[in-house]
Design a protein that fits this description.
Order of helices and strands: EEHEEEEEHEHEHEHEHHEHEHEE
Strand order of the largest sheet: 8-6-7-9-10-11-12-13-14-15
Number of strands: 15
Pfam family, one: Fer2_4
Keywords: 4Fe-4S, Iron, Iron-sulfur, Lyase, Metal-binding, Oxidoreductase, Pyruvate, S-adenosyl-L-methionine
Number of domains: 2
GO molecular function: 4 iron, 4 sulfur cluster binding; [formate-C-acetyltransferase]-activating enzyme activity; lyase activity; metal ion binding
Distance between the termini: 41 Å
Bound molecules: iron/sulfur cluster, FE2/S2 (inorganic) cluster
Strand content: 15-25%
Number of helices: 9
Protein name: Pyruvate-formate lyase-activating enzyme
CATH class of the largest domain: Alpha Beta
Structural class: alpha/beta
Largest sheet: 10 strands, mixed
CATH topology of the largest domain: TIM Barrel
Cofactor: [4Fe-4S] cluster
């Protein structure tokens, strides 16, 4: 239902009578109605799930990120989409897993790819796409990955496959994108550590493409320590109302996400010059004004005038109807950003990138 772009699927309430079932969580016997998810059963028994990383965490609710995973009768399953059964024995998940697809080569990479490496004739990067996202962007271009589950794999397997795809396409760059790849911290840091072990050559680059909404200082430090060499941070807006419109999130959670995006960009640029940091910002006049773009430029320039900023031309996708900005508009937006002092602005257009 979440991933259906035409909103053709709707949930229908199951009004049949529900018997009470018993299950165990951490050796405590609990009760809940039958025919609900494990997550709902735990909530019914008073166990709280959070939208932000804090104890039991369920940011995607689509079976993609496995942040909400538990061991159920010995098998690790996402609690948000798995049905509770009578007599089930639940405990915290014994290993990190994540639904991942893709492992495909790219010619242009992402927000964290230096613009001078982007090519339209040969591959420069291979990427794996993590399923599940904490945002609900109505113009999401990766809605299948963002809003579905599937078969989950370990961080080690993901790193092994990415390494073999790197060798197959003879590229140096390996990326994690999505969906939102940072949601399952243990999985992502494990995959990057393993990837670094398997790719000890100096040319290997490990790129994380992210909405940066759940980062903390220690999460960013853990990624750098694990081996991340490049990061692309999408900052969706300056103002909260714009952010809510673009991301489909709201309230206190949206405010925290937006603050974390700005914090992450500043933190990486000021503390990790050895990591290539790129910033992505959205543009479509239906979503964000040129004044807000200008003010975003000023705030980024206050962090660094040299950072690479990529303006992404948001267009009709998923559930949102809107005309794509034309090339002239994107040129204008690039000039607005340059006028704030930013030196390295790339504008994405229907006909390719306008580079510095
Ligand atoms: S943050 Fe990216 S992947 Fe997630 S919903 Fe928005 S556009 Fe889609
Ligand atoms: S919250 Fe359940 S898999 Fe993402």
């Amino acid at each position: 239902m979440l991933a259906c772009s035409g909103e053709a699927i709707e949930m229908v309430e199951d009004k049949r009578q529900r018997n009470t079932i018993k299950f165990e969580f951490n050796n405590r016997v609990l009760e809940a109605p039958e025919r609900i998810t494990i997550k709902k059963a735990l909530e019914y028994a008073g166990i709280r799930f959070s939208e932000l990383p804090d104890g039991l965490y369920s940011p995607c609710n689509a079976g993609g990120c496995y942040c909400c995973a538990v061991s159920a009768d010995g098998e690790v399953v996402p609690s948000c989409i798995t049905e509770i059964k009578d007599g089930m024995k639940l405990s915290p998940a014994s290993k990190p897993l994540r639904v991942v697809t893709g492992f495909v080569p790219h010619m242009v990479g992402g927000v964290g790819t230096p613009y001078y490496l982007k090519s339209y004739s040969s591959y420069i990067e291979v990427a794996c796409f993590t399923h599940g996202c904490n945002f609900r962007c109505p113009q999401c271009q990766n809605n299948v990955m963002a809003f579905t589950g599937g078969m989950a794999i370990s961080p080690e397997t993901a790193a092994e496959v990415l390494t073999s795809v790197r060798s197959m396409y003879k590229v140096n760059r390996m990326a994690f994108s999505g969906g939102e790849c940072t949601l399952n911290r243990q999985w992502l840091t494990g995959a990057i550590r393993h990837l670094k072990e398997l790719n000890k050559d100096k040319k290997a680059r490990i790129h994380v493409d992210t909405n940066a909404s759940i980062f903390t200082k220690d999460y960013l430090e853990e990624l750098v320590l694990a081996g991340m060499t490049d990061i692309g941070i999408d900052i969706k807006s300056l103002h909260l109302d714009t952010f809510e419109k673009i991301t489909g999130t709201d309230g206190k959670t949206a405010k925290t996400y937006l603050e974390n995006e700005w914090f992450s960009a500043r933190y990486m640029i000021e503390n990790h010059p050895e990591v290539f940091t790129g910033i992505g910002i959205p543009y479509n006049k239906a979503l964000i004004s040129k004044e807000e773009i200008y003010d975003m430029g000023l705030r980024i320039a206050d962090i660094s005038k040299d950072v690479q900023v990529c303006v992404l031309d948001y267009r009709r996708a998923f559930r949102r109807e809107m005309a794509a900005p034309d090339i002239q508009e994107m040129k204008e937006v690039k000039e607005i950003l340059n006028s704030t002092g930013l030196k390295t602005v790339i504008a994405q257009t229907m006909k390719g990138n306008i580079v510095p």
